[in-house]
């Protein structure tokens, strides 16, 4: 395979992106996609995949550096989800119509906000969550929205093969660029977990090394 080592295999988190964006949300070119938590490894990959599909990509991060990273990876607009009123800015970016598709990386914190921002008959795809959240079903009914999720371990072998082929083509074409974040040796795994929970904002995918 030209430009990509035959021994290279796309990182596991890449395989959330294509099922989430294409299969669950059934996106169409020209639609607006919000990646709620876009500066981490999965968010970055989703951003790059969405841009390759012709979507208008909006992303959020928790720091100014994270916002710059989102723009560098192809997003059209970036927002700080720690700022008061950031959801109003996102709605303004859609001319008040709401977002067609939302990729949610931390549903226990953001799902209620997503239900306010999603467009009528829009879709929210949950990719990550760290706990429970209480929502009002009327918010879903009012938008006739679809709330679904992706769990990578349920993917069929043929779906993984299709995703891998798509990602290899993206790396060869140059639009898919894995972003490596902080690195920890295996004996520092506990510290890595602590840092990712307490971090003010993600920047690529955290790596554990032997």
TrEMBL record:
GO molecular function: mRNA 3'-UTR binding; NADPH binding; quinone reductase (NADPH) activity
Keyword NADP (UniProt): yes
A Pfam family that the UniProt record links to this protein: ADH_zinc_N
Domain called Enoyl reductase (ER): residue spans: 3-208
Keywords: NADP
A GO cellular component annotation in the UniProt record: cytosol
Protein name: Crystallin, zeta (quinone reductase)
């Amino acid at each position: 395979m030209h430009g990509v080592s035959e021994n290279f295999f796309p990182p596991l988190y890449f395989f959330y992106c294509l099922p989430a964006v294409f299969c669950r949300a059934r996106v169409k070119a020209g639609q607006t996609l919000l990646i709620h938590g876009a500066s981490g490894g999965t968010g970055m990959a989703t951003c790059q995949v969405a841009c390759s599909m012709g979507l208008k990509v909006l992303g959020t991060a928790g720091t100014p550096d994270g916002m710059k990273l989102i723009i560098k990876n192809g997003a059209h607009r970036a927002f700080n989800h720690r700022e008061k009123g950031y959801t109003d800015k996102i709605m303004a970016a859609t001319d008040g119509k709401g977002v067609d598709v939302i990729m949610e990386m931390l549903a226990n914190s953001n799902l209620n906000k997503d239900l306010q921002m999603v467009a009528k008959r829009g879709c929210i795809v949950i990719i990550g969550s760290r706990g429970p959240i209480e929502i009002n079903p009327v918010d879903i009914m009012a938008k006739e929205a679809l709330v679904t999720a992706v769990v990578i371990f349920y993917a069929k072998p043929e779906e993984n093969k299709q995703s891998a082929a798509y990602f290899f083509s993206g790396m060869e074409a140059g639009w898919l660029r894995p972003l490596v974040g902080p690195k920890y040796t295996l004996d520092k795994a506990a510290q890595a977990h602590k840092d990712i929970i307490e971090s003010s904002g993600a920047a690529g995918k955290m790596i554990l090394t032997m």
